[in-house]
Structures are given as C-alpha cells and as structure tokens.
Amino acid sequence: MDDRPIGVFDSGLGGLTVLKELMAQLPNENIVYFGDTARLPYGTRSREAIIKYSIQCIRFLLSKNIKAVVIACGTASSMALQAVKETFDIPVIGVIEPGAEAAVRITRNNKIGIIGTQATIASGAYPRIINQLNPGIETLSVACRLFVPIVEEGWSDTEIAYLTAEEYLKDLKLWGADTIILGCTHYPLLINTISKIMGPEVTLVNPGADTARQVKEMLAHRDMLREDEDAGRYLYYLSDFSQRFKQIGSSFLNKDIEYPEKVDIENY
Length: 268
Ligand code: DGL
What we know:
Blueprint: E1 6-10, H1 16-25, E2 31-35, H2 47-62, E3 68-71, H3 74-87, E4 92-93, H4 96-106, E5 111-116, H5 118-123, H6 125-133, E6 138-143, H7 147-152, H8 159-175, E7 179-182, H9 191-198, E8 203-205, H10 207-221, E9 234-238, H11 243-253, E10 261-262
Parallel strand pairs: 1-2, 1-3, 2-9, 3-4, 5-6, 5-7, 7-8, 9-10
Helix pairs in contact: 1-10, 2-3, 4-6, 4-10, 8-9
The chain binds D-glutamic acid (DGL).
C-alpha cells in the first residue's frame, strides 16, 4: 500500500482525457496534474526539447512526492518514454502501448488509422508497436496539426472543428480504416466531431482508458494502491495561466476543478 499521489502530465488540457479515466478506474487515488501550458504545443518540437520538457515535468511532480508517473501526452510518450525511464527510478507509464494494444484487439479488417501530432506521427511509435503485436495489420497515419489549438481554444464542437477534421480525415475514410487511434490525448475532446465524420462503423480508440487500466494493474502488482477508502483528491498545476483550463476542464470532467496553481517549470 502506498498513499502518495499519482503524477500526471501533458502539455495542456489533453491529459485530462487520461485523468478522467484514472478518476473512474482508480477513484480512491490522489492525483497531481501538471499542464505545461507555457510551452504548448509539444507536437511541433524536436525530440531533444520534448525529452527536456518531460524530464522537467517529472522533476516538478516528484517535488509533490508522487509514487508513479503517467505521461498523459502522446507526443511525450512517443518521444521521451525511454529517456525518462532511464532517468528516473519511479514507475512511468505512457499512452502509446495501451492505445496500440486496444486498437489491435478491436480491429476486424486489420486497417488501423492513427491520428496524432506531427511529432507523434513522425516518431512512428504507433505503427512500430502495432506491427510487433500483429505484423498482418496495416496502418495509415495522419498528423492533425490544428487539432490541439482548436481544443485549447474551446472550439471542439464547432463548424471550424468539423471542417478541419473533414480535411484531415478524408484519406483515412477513403482507405477504409475500421479503427482509429486518437493518438494525441487532446483528441478525445473532439470525439463528437470525429465520429460524425467517420460514422458509426469506425471505432475511435481513446488510449486513456487502457492506460488507466494498466496503471491500476501496475499499482496492484507492486502493492502500491492507496488503502484509504475516501475519494481521491486532485491538484492542478500549470506552467502558465490559462483562462480556459478551469472552464473546459470542469465541463469535460463533470466536476468543478480546483483553480490551477502556477509553477515556474524552468526551475526544475
Ligand atoms: N496532448 C498532447 C499529445 O498527446 C498534445 C501535444 C501538443 O502539445 O502538441 O500529443
């Protein structure tokens, strides 16, 4: 048993889609959330920058006495997971493996579409893991650069989001993917828009659900689950003030979230 909180980070709001799954599957765990809003987006940065940012995010979370880290960001998971595992002596779980495993389980026609940031798509992390799991599966990857700013702006369910998504998704639609991985943790906030375009036959995989399941299994296996039965508490930190974080976050999580505290991440 281990009563310390779980640390979760993303470049901004996207990690809340993973946090929501963690809250549902691990309701007694305390969680510290960090959004690196001062340096968002991560998806257009170099590998070196993403590794440096991820290490700083984890150093900050360690200052909050966490017991494990969830990289709730597709970009940081695809670019920095290995480096942070080598740097820190604490369990770290990213979103790529859980997302790939879920999609491989779900596909029926063996055609998996992957959408993500420029960096995640360029890393080739999803196709690599999918092909390790099943070499008979074909993948088609599309970088959707405008999705993160649209979500951060609070425009997920607008005409702008719809037209943008239509353009990005047209090749995947033509190609006939039956399963699409929402390979950036911001994208589940666009799920209504994306599913309108892809239609009911296409399954959209939110890697957050399987990530939370793996976190639960890992903590149980190491006897690190929190023992107290009262509801978990959640603390939010951002590296820059974001007007929308509290508003979009509260509405997405269906609970009034604490006002995020500002952290100078360059000190870590
Ligand atoms: N949520 C991050 C991801 O999963 C967004 C990346 C960004 O900041 O560009 O990739």
